[in-house]
Amino acid sequence: MLRLLVLFLLVGEHGVWAATELLSWQLDGNSRSAWDILWSCATSIFACTWTILHSDVPGRQISEARRTVMFARTWLMALFVPELILGYAFEEFVAARSSRNKYNAVQTMRNAEQQKVAEANDGPTDCDDSSKWTLTQTFCVNASGLSLLTPDDWIYNVRSDDEMVLLIQTGLVSPDDMPQQEIEDHAKQDWLGKLFTFLQVTWFFCNTIARWASQLSVSPLELATFAYCILAMFVYLFWWYKPKDISSPITIPLHCNRDDLPTQLLDTMDAEGWMHRRTPAKKEHTLRVAWQAIQTPFLSDYSEDLETVRERVLEQSKWLHVIVLLGGFMGIAYSGIHLAAWVPTPYSSFIAMGD
């Protein structure tokens, strides 16, 4: 950690302290103006905190006020504690990969059973074994983006891997029920929008590195934005396949009522998770919801989802060490970059003593 901090201090020595004269607010001139620096940093920080967020799918009973407050609260976390968002994105990435492997294993067994039944009945044996669960689909499922609809208009939001495994085993859900095109239609941003934001963040990152390499001055605000860009690029890599801001889940119609579902599946499902299709959303006041958000670490309607993700990740002890190491490294890196803008280097101290 000490070596990493020294490395960032060297960046400050060659970048932040490269200017020998303090300048006031510059509106215009041959060089960069203060407005240019402020605008470039503001847009980059906005891209690193607001547009980079990939929120989960809210429940049908969640009010619009609670959705707005929850997203604003998450944005404040990304603004003041961006390394926490990075850790959360890594947890979701690990959980999505684990779910994909689990679903594909169960799907393969299901296809093999169908193949045997078809051969025993002297029927067609060309069962489709090419249908596999993708990372985008498992991201969508883990983000509460899959609902089941019974003929009597009862809706259930799938919440856990155990429920999905039983749904796949019984043939009620398959990868073909969640096509890629439908997921993209529900999402607020496609891969092109993600690529544009990623390139914007990368441009600022490369521009700062180029100024440091050319012995040009880098302002403290630019260095702080540089720290945001580093974390944002990792967050975007972990969330690249996650659908962005799906407002409503993908609904799969079932051919049987709740009471006709397999007993093992009913025992696994949460009985309180069923909701009628015509149930109206809650009406809540924005200020009351905001006060609840201040009083609690996470909003009650979303804290259960966070615990579910954490349980999926911690099932394998090896990922616990990776999460701790990643969080420690990125936390030290993020803080070290900020310190580089304010800690005087030996060279600058020597010049100040000479003056």
From TrEMBL:
The keyword Transmembrane applies. The chain crosses the membrane at residues 74-90, 223-241, 319-343. Residues 1-18 form the signal peptide. It comes from the Eukaryota. The keyword Membrane applies. Keywords: Membrane, Signal, Transmembrane, Transmembrane helix. PANTHER family: TRANSCRIPTION FACTOR DOMAIN-CONTAINING PROTEIN. This is Uncharacterized protein. It comes from Penicillium capsulatum.
